[in-house]
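Q: My labmate handed me this sequence with no annotations at all. I'd like to see what the chain might look like in three dimensions before we decide whether it's worth expressing. Could you predict it?
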Amino acid sequence: MTSREEKDAERREEARRTLARAERESETVLRAAFEGASKTREEEDPIERMGRRIGRGAGAVFAIGLAIYLLWTYVL
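A: Here is what I predict for the chain of 76 residues:
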């Protein structure tokens, strides 16, 4: 093999390793997300439920506030 072919082969192998690692990591993240979503209502902690409500409410308030700010700043 020539030097160029060897470099190309090394690059392809490195790309395969990188893609394999990214696939393993994404599977771990997705699995954790789905396992958390699969709980039934009886298994939920009341504090967890309250925290989720507070977080969603705060997120909605933030999103509305951001939309108003952006409209006020750039449109009006």
